[in-house]
Design brief:
Order of helices and strands: HHEHEHHEEEEHEEHEEEE
Distance between the termini: 80 Å
Largest sheet: 6 strands, parallel
Helix content: 25-40%
Mean pLDDT: 85
Shape: elongated
Length: 211
């Protein structure tokens, strides 16, 4: 079968093109690079900046002694009479100062609730919690004030890093619920007006302890 010169030239070009790989025109779009740029500062600072932007109250403590002093001072300044906490290790340094203000029941009547967390996500300023914690799924939501106590060893860059940490920590026994809390509860569903504290705490305090 005879082919026209133009058709033969076209086939030659196709064969030549197939014999040589063509570089991707936009290599960055193939998922070979991280979606977000690396941090330009310490993760503690990045988390603090993002968390404060969202309306959170951030307190950095260089050790357990400073944490105890700062927490006791905050409770007395705000005049909170009922502090709910199920995680003894978080309130042990301050138990003597707060005395009978610390409770393990009556969450609904508490002024504030203290919980730990699983991770802190620096890029988004998020607190990551799960039902594997002693405080369960309710303490960080029901009280009007949520006080989270975290340690610098729990800081990760992005949500992906937190999920990877969960897989490494729990394997096939993942918690039934993982929560990413990003600032105080808020909604704009009510006449398009931003309202804080509708579905959760009105204020969130984060004590980051050096560890």
């Amino acid at each position: 079968m005879n082919m026209s010169p133009s058709k033969e030239n076209m086939l030659k070009k196709i064969r030549k093109a197939l014999s040589h790989s063509t570089p991707l025109p936009f290599p960055q779009s193939e998922g070979n690079q991280p979606l977000f740029p690396a941090l330009q500062q310490e993760p503690e600072l990045e988390f603090a900046e993002q968390f404060i932007k969202l309306g959170g109250k951030f307190i950095y403590c260089i050790n357990q002694q400073e944490y105890a002093f700062q927490l006791a001072s905050l409770v007395k300044k705000m005049d909170w009479q009922k502090i709910y906490c199920l995680e003894d290790r978080l309130v042990q340094p301050v138990a003597a100062q707060l005395g009978d203000r610390l409770l393990k029941k009556d969450l609904a009547g508490a002024d504030a609730a203290i919980t730990g967390c699983e991770y802190l996500v620096a890029r988004t300023g998020s607190i990551v919690m799960s039902t594997a914690q002693a405080s369960g799924r309710t303490a960080s939501v029901y009280a009007p004030i949520h006080i989270c106590v975290a340690f610098t060893s729990q800081l990760v860059f992005d949500i992906r890093d937190a999920l990877t940490g969960f897989r490494e920590k729990f394997g096939q026994q993942m918690p039934s619920l993982v929560t990413f809390a990003t600032g105080p509860s808020r909604t704009a569903d009510i006449e398009k007006t931003l309202v804080v504290g509708v579905h959760g705490p009105k204020e969130v305090f984060l004590f980051l302890v050096q560890a």
